[in-house]
Amino acid sequence: MKSGIFSTIVCGILVVSVWPSGTQTRKVVPDIKKFLNPGEIVWVLVTSAERGPDCQLDIIDTIVAGKVYFRRLIGYKFTMSDFQQFLEGHLQSSRKFRKNISDVLNVGYRGAAPTSAEKLLYLSQQYNCGVFEVKGLPNGANYELRSKNPSTEGASNTHCFKAYNKTARGKGRRISVDPHCEDILKGNNDIVSSINMASGALG
Fold first, then answer.
1. Tell me: the pLDDT tens digits for 151-171?
2. Domain 25-202 belongs to what topology?
3. Among 53, 74, 110, 158, which is most buried by a count of CB atoms within 10 Å?
4. Domain ranges within the chain, ordered by starting residue
């Protein structure tokens, strides 16, 4: 009888340690395939790069045979930019994960060799934001907080900002949050004019 009571108490302690007051969240495996979906838009909200664009987003066109085809739109406050990169990313697994988990995207221009590696370090439970380490850039490696929601008000209450600050040690500047960001990017053949800035979706 005593052993049964003891076992019950131990089980209760284990349950509480895993779900204290229902606030504990499970750790999500950073799989890029769960984060990127065709037709969706991903915004860079925070970057550790000291210099760079004031607005940046990726439009995911399609994902097929281990490759992600997307367009990267970049804008600057003082220059009306129609700069649009047509890119492809090769999904890859780092040594940390098995082959069925893709946490690295080797990115380059379509039909050309990859020039940078974008590694997903953290992914939220809802798969709507993540922290990336970007290597291969002229200014070295940078960290970026990317989100499907262009509003920092919604993203700032998530664990993504905490994960970013922990990874980048608080170093970063916010981009893509300027109220004129939509106008800055409209030079891209008015693609962004159809983006719902409240949700980040097309249409």
1. 655 555 578 889 999 999 877
2. Lipocalin (2.40.128)
3. 53
4. 25-202
